[in-house]
């Protein structure tokens, strides 16, 4: 089990959570959204197979990653960097296909119902998600805390499955919410299974910023936590992303031993000391990850 510094023996209760579906709030009031890589609209200059019209349409759909309200036509053009005429044609086409629609109060555009078809397809055709769900359900029943499966996307982890036991708010229930690799137990677990140079490259390209007073922002300190995770098989993160929260995670690897995601258990420090949490959660977590690796 892990030895914890004295000042981490008992955390503060609660933990501030944003009401937004795609954001969490740090101790200084800033909101964090872990976003995917920007759509490369100029890729066609070097790739003869790249369809720029398709990329522009995806850029319009991706504009909603960055906001928490409906967007006007002008705002979509600004978010994407496209001219208004091009934006208007793409928005019109996407509306005709039900990939965009007006919001219920007619204040602007929002993603349309057809988006859900692709979410469903992505989840039902992902072999890891399909294999993981029965194990995650058993794990949630055993630990009675939130259980997540997240998948790697460059510098971030995207929640693919979230099983909630209690006291949760909207953003914690939404599949697709993503968080940085650099400051989560899942991220540290993933880093622990990568070569050091690859892990350093991820951290150097990440925006290392404080979301709580305890968030680690030094590259070597983060890699030291990853090294600890490599030794014991799992990572524990205390108040790295949200005040009052503790998480434990282990990486999920493919047949080549490379990490493809992580399984995590998250709880409140008002309910657990770090030692108690480690002792209670780590056996069930490792049993789940090991079983998933054999499936």
Task: Describe, in plain words, how this protein is organized in 3D.
It is a single chain. It is globular and about 60 Å long. Residues 1-33 have low confidence and may be disordered. It is α+β, with helices and mostly antiparallel strands. A six-stranded antiparallel sheet has the order 7-6-5-10-9-8, sandwiched between helices. Strands 1-2 form a two-stranded antiparallel ribbon. Strands 3-4 form a two-stranded antiparallel sheet. α2 (73-80) packs across α3. β5 and β6 form a beta hairpin. 39% of the residues lie in helices and 18% in strands.
Q: What is shown here, in short?
A:
The chain is α+β, with helices and mostly antiparallel strands.
Main sheet: strand order? 7-6-5-10-9-8
Query: CATH homologous superfamily of the largest domain?
Result: GAF domain
> Could you name the CATH topology of the largest domain?
Beta-Lactamase
Radius of gyration over alpha carbons?
20 Å
Shape by Cα distribution: globular
Report the biggest beta sheet as strand number plus sense, adding barrel if it closes.
Answer: 6 strands, antiparallel
Number of E-state strands = 10
Helix proportion range: 25-40%
Into which percentage range does the β-strand content fall? Answer: 15-25%
Residue windows where pLDDT falls under 50 for at least 5 positions: 1-33
Structural domain count: 2
- In the CATH scheme, the class of the largest domain would be Alpha Beta
Query: At CATH's second level, what is the architecture of the largest domain?
Result: 2-Layer Sandwich
Structural class: alpha+beta
Order of helices and strands: EEHHHEEHHEEHEHHHEEEH
User: What is the end-to-end distance?
Assistant: 27 Å
């Amino acid at each position: 089990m892990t030895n914890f510094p004295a000042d981490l023996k008992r955390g503060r209760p609660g933990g501030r959570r944003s009401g937004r579906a795609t954001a969490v709030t740090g101790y200084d009031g800033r909101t964090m959204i872990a976003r995917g890589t920007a759509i490369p609209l100029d890729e066609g200059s070097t790739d003869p197979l790249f369809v720029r019209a398709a990329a522009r349409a995806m850029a319009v759909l991706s504009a909603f990653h960055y906001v928490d309200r409906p967007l006007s036509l002008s705002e979509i053009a600004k978010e994407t960097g496209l001219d208004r005429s091009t934006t208007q044609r793409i928005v019109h086409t996407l509306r005709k296909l039900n990939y965009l629609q007006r919001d219920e109060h007619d204040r602007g555009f929002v993603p349309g119902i057809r988006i859900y078809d692709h979410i469903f397809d992505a989840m039902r055709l992902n072999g890891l998600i399909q294999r993981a769900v029965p194990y995650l359900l058993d794990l949630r029943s055993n630990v009675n805390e939130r259980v997540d499966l997240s998948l790697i996307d460059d510098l971030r982890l995207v929640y693919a499955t979230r099983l909630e036991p209690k006291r949760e708010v909207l953003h914690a229930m939404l599949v697709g919410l993503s968080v940085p690799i650099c400051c989560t137990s899942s991220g540290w677990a993933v880093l622990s299974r990568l070569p050091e140079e690859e892990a350093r490259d991820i951290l150097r390209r990440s925006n290392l910023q404080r979301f709580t007073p305890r968030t680690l922002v030094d590259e070597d300190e983060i890699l030291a936590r990853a090294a600890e995770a490599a030794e014991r098989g799992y990572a524990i993160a205390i108040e790295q992303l949200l005040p009052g929260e503790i998480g434990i995670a282990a990486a999920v690897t493919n047949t080549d031993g490379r990490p493809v995601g992580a399984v995590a258990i998250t709880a409140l420090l008002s309910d657990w000391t770090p030692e108690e949490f480690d002792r209670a959660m780590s056996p069930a977590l490792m049993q789940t990850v090991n079983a998933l690796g054999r499936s």
